[in-house]
Design brief:
One of its GO terms (molecular function) is zinc ion binding. InterPro entries: FGD1-4_PH2 (IPR035941), FYVE_RhoGEF_PH (IPR051092), PH-like_dom_sf (IPR011993), PH_domain (IPR001849), Znf_B-box (IPR000315), Znf_FYVE (IPR000306), Znf_FYVE-rel (IPR017455), Znf_RING/FYVE/PHD (IPR013083). It holds the Pfam family FYVE. The chain has 2 domains: 61 residues, Zinc/RING finger domain, C3HC4 (zinc finger) (Herpes Virus-1, 2-Layer Sandwich); 103 residues, Roll (PH-domain like). A 7-stranded antiparallel β-sheet has the order 8-7-6-5-11-10-9. Strands 1-2 form a two-stranded antiparallel ribbon. Strands 3-4 form a two-stranded antiparallel sheet. Helix content is 13%, strand content 28%. It is elongated, with a radius of gyration of 20 Å. The chain has 3 helices and 11 strands, in the order E-E-E-E-H-H-E-E-E-E-E-E-E-H. By secondary structure, the protein is an alpha+beta fold. The two termini are 27 Å apart.
């Protein structure tokens, strides 16, 4: 659990590992090797880009030394709020960790759209929206890559390729989404949930 605002800077945070995110947890810009390196906020432990970690605050747990912090923690620690931050988040901007923690099902699946190559995605069906499949690049990402409203899709669970025996397909008129699980058990878990969702049941 993330530190409560009152505890920011008083206790060392749990650092989110670099490989758990593919984008800055504040501005949502994707990381890349050159221009966007990963930095950790010393107050909340989030992984942020240089732009979003360009703040410094005195942290109690570190003997009140000046430490790199993200914009949000900076405002909390020095005691001012940023009204911009309070604007309602868009649908894709629900944090993966938040959604995964309260989900019907979540796991990595291989995903393919049209003729693009297969890619690994962190897939989640949240409890409060059990008819929508959210796809993230990694479990701690703060913005979804895509969402698929499952209602009305047709499920085809016969694998087309021997390389990915645990695959299944969702089709609706022109759109086709292919998924593959690492094993049959996981595939069946997903199918159980998806078969209900496409009929509008939860």
């Amino acid at each position: 659990p993330l530190l409560q605002n009152a505890e920011l800077g008083k206790r060392a945070p749990r650092w989110i590992r670099d490989n758990e995110v593919t984008m800055c947890m504040k501005c949502k810009e994707p990381f890349n090797a050159l221009t966007r390196r990963r930095h950790h906020c010393r107050a909340c432990g989030h992984v942020v880009c240089w732009k979003c970690s360009d703040y410094k605050a005195h942290l109690e747990y570190d003997g009140n030394k000046l430490n790199k912090v993200c914009k949000d923690c900076y405002h909390v620690i020095i005691g001012c709020t940023d009204s911009e931050e309070k604007k309602r988040k868009g649908i894709l901007e629900i944090e993966s960790a938040e959604v995964s923690g309260n989900s019907v099902i979540c796991s990595f699946l291989q995903y393919m759209e049209k003729s693009k190559p297969w890619q690994k995605a962190w897939c989640v069906i949240p409890k409060q929206e059990a008819l929508v499949l959210y796809m993230y690049g990694a479990p701690q990402d703060v913005k979804a890559l895509a969402t698929i409203p499952l209602l009305g899709y047709t499920v085809d669970d016969t694998p087309k390729s021997a390389d990915l025996p645990h695959s299944f397909k969702l089709t609706q008129s022109k759109s086709v989404h292919s998924f593959a699980a690492d094993n049959e058990e996981l595939k069946q878990k997903w199918l159980k949930v998806i078969h209900l969702a496409v009929k509008g049941e939860t």
